């Protein structure tokens, strides 16, 4: 497990990490000497696990070998392209959507993953929402709904994802579904946070409201 944690940690450090810094983050409850020993053991296990080199050590620096492919890096690059307004290349859309649905090392309790998870979640939320809007513009309403609902699943109280779901329903002419989505979100906010949806969201259904 120590070798797995080390490889995962280095995968998130694109420029590598100093030995002492890596040991401190991977074994925060240990003394510096003990943490350094754990790091040496993890390096040894990582070298034994694969025929090819996975971790490179240069002086006091550690990094993944240049030949190692990190799927998270590829998903982040593709997500950045989508949020910049570019459509996925032909044949890559399904793979990108599947990648954006994935959590970052779920169930790992590591403190050093907290900010990394937050950054990944924000990127995939924005990418999924942008992709859903692109699909809606192409009148591909079923995948647009699926992608928008994937964003809702990541952060259920985030309004923009719910708003896109409503917009897709309205584009299809399903006003009842749009209103039902609004009411469900309104009840969620009142129950969980004691606040109301924004004016921007209310304007989507104000003509559907009972007078």
UniProtKB/TrEMBL annotation:
Keywords: Transcription, Transcription regulation, Two-component regulatory system. Residues 70-209 form the Bacterial transcriptional activator domain. InterPro entries: AfsR-DnrI-RedD_regulator (IPR051677), BTAD (IPR005158), TPR-like_helical_dom_sf (IPR011990). It holds the Pfam family BTAD. It comes from the Bacteria. PANTHER family: TRANSCRIPTIONAL REGULATOR REDD, TRANSCRIPTIONAL REGULATOR REDD-RELATED. This is Bacterial transcriptional activator domain-containing protein. It comes from Streptomyces bangladeshensis.
